[in-house]
Specification:
By secondary structure, this protein is an alpha+beta fold. The chain has helices at residues 18-34, 37-54, 77-83, and strands spanning 2-5, 9-13, 55-57, 68-70. The chain contains three helices and four strands, in the order ββααββα.
């Protein structure tokens, strides 16, 4: 799947990373819902770090349709709250 981190670029991430990304997404959603800024910052960083670790960056001159769009590392809790769907940033 292709994952875009806003302001950073796209990554090709294998399906084997889906379970861990979903777990990290749930942590992020929980932090946003509770209003816990420290947990939010930790969860967002962990989710984006996992995409970077598990994914291969696509060349900047190559634009693919993104399966997932994640907030940039400097996003506020309110920014992420607006992006959240009923099942988090990552469906499933």
């Amino acid at each position: 799947m292709i994952v875009r981190i806003l302001g950073e670029g796209q990554y090709s991430v294998g399906d084997t990373a889906t379970a861990e990304l979903n777990r990290l997404d749930a942590d992020l959603e929980k932090a946003v819902n509770s209003g816990d800024e420290a947990a939010f910052a930790t969860a967002l960083r962990a989710l984006l770090d996992q995409v970077r670790a598990q994914g291969a960056p696509l060349p900047s001159d190559r634009l693919e349709p993104s399966d997932l769009i994640l907030p940039d590392p400097d996003s506020s809790m309110d920014d992420v709250r607006k992006m959240l769907a009923d099942d988090g940033l990552i469906p499933g």
